[in-house]
Structures are given as structure tokens and as C-alpha cells.
Amino acid sequence: MSPPVSIPLERYYRFHSPIYDATRWTFLFGRTALIRKISDHIRPRRILEIGCGTGKNLVLLTRYFPDADITGLDLSVDMLRRASGKFDERAVKPHLIHGNYSQALHSGPSYDLIVFSYTLSMINPGFGQALDNARCDLSPGGMIAVVDFDDSPANRFKSWMKVNHVRMDGHLLPVLNRLFEPLHQSVKKAYGGLWRYFMFIGLRQMESTAASSVLSAGLYDSFSDERDEYFHGDHHQEYGKQDQ
């Protein structure tokens, strides 16, 4: 294994965007299954995906929910460019936003469904802030749907994934269960148990204390100078308008 190097995420995805779709199917498991499972619970009218990448999930979401207004947010222009290309010949197109998720996108609840697909494990530190933002953006009774890495018994593999900005410490499910009322959750093994990944679908809790429970329980990662660029500054721009 190569020694760890620090690569800002935007530069990381500039390199990986051309090969992302050709390679990620080999280890980002459960993405299609998550969207199928979502359709068992809700028919959302407004959907937000955080870290939409090259748009694989956006395509599936438009198929399963053709009448929904769908928005995808990503910090990488290169990934958004590829996502946009998937909809060149399609009548229904999602709104694509270039930016981070350092704060809620709207001043009040606006979405029936928010999707995180292999995103939260890459927001280190600060995943708790992303979940708090999602609570603010979700309408009462809205749902969050997450598929992501859980953990691994292999320390060398976990160290290698950390080089690629991924944290695998089993830290996400406890926080999700604290902040949202679980409707479905499952943990599955990949490659004979080299790592585990999970799916989680939950309802936005109505209790006023739930929003602060990550902080009060000490589960929220304190901020640092290096926030993987999802929390570097504050900018949201509709994709295409600044890059034409």
C-alpha cells in the first residue's frame, strides 16, 4: 500500500470522475436496493440528494419517482458535469447545485426525502452537522435514506480507505438511530466480511430535543481546519450557470 497522502476532495474527484462509474459498482453496494426500498415507504414530491456525484442515483430516482422535483448537490464540478450529461436526452432533468452542505439549503422544511449515498462516511469531521442540516431541510414526516460503509475488522483496509477520505468506524448508525425514527435498517457483509455496509431509512423525529441530540450525546465531531471541503466556506451555485 502507498503511504497516506492528503488530497483535497475536489481535486480527488477531478481525477476520479472519468473512471467513477466504471469502477464504483465494484464496491459501492446497495445503492439501487436503497432506492427500491424507499419506494416501499414514500412517494416523495421533493427530493434532495447530498453528494450526488455522477448522477447514478438521480437517474434511478427519476425512474422511480417521475413526478418528483429532484435536486442534486455536489462539491465537484467535474462530477456534476457527468451527472448533467446523463440527462441530455431526458425530458425530466434534476436541479444540480455546485456547493457544500455547510448549512440547510432553505430557511424552512422543503424536502420529503433526503438521500445520502456513500457521502456521510466522507464528511470527517462534520457528518453530524450534515445530519442536523438534513433535519432542517426535511418536512415534518419526511424521510432520510442512507447507504454507506459501516466498519471493517481489517485495520490495514480501514487505513487505506482513510487515505481515500473514508471513515469506517461504525459511527454512523448510532447517530442516525438517535436523530431519526428507524423504518428500515440492515447491515451486510462485502467480500466475505472485509467490510460491512448498511442501509438506513428513517422518519424525521418531531421532538425538539432531537436536533441537538448529536451534540448533547458527544457524538458530533468537533470542527477542525480540515473539513473535507463539504464544510469549507459557504457556497451554493446552480450548476451550469457559473461554468458555461
CATH fourth-tier homologous superfamily: Vaccinia Virus protein VP39
* Residue-averaged pLDDT: 82
Strand count, sense and barrel status of the largest sheet are: 8 strands, mixed
State the CATH architecture: 3-Layer(aba) Sandwich
How many helices? The count is 9
The count of β-strands is: 8
Helical percentage: 25-40%
Rg, nearest Å: 17 Å
Alpha-beta content class = alpha/beta
Question: Could you walk me through the main structural features you see in this protein, from its secondary elements to its overall organization?
Answer:
- The protein is an alpha/beta fold.
- It has a single domain (9-235), classed as Rossmann fold, CATH 3.40.50.150.
- Helix content is 29%, strand content 24%.
- The chain is built from nine helices and eight strands.
- Strands 6-7-5-4-1-2-3-8 form an eight-stranded mixed β-sheet.
- Helix 3 (31-39) runs parallel beside helix 4 and helix 6 (127-137) runs parallel beside helix 8 (172-179).
- The N and C termini lie far apart (40 Å).
Task: List the keywords.
single chain; about 240 residues; alpha/beta; eight-stranded mixed sheet; 9 helices; 8 strands; about 30% helix; globular; disordered N terminus
Short description:
With 244 residues, this protein is α/β, with parallel strands linked by helices. The chain has one domain: Rossmann fold (3-Layer(aba) Sandwich).
Question: Strands, helices and their partners?
Answer:
Blueprint: H1 9-16, H2 20-23, H3 31-39, E1 46-50, H4 56-64, E2 69-74, H5 77-85, E3 95-99, E4 111-117, H6 127-137, E5 138-149, H7 155-163, H8 172-179, E6 180-190, E7 195-204, H9 213-216, E8 236-238
Parallel strand pairs: 1-2, 1-4, 2-3, 4-5
Antiparallel strand pairs: 3-8, 5-7, 6-7
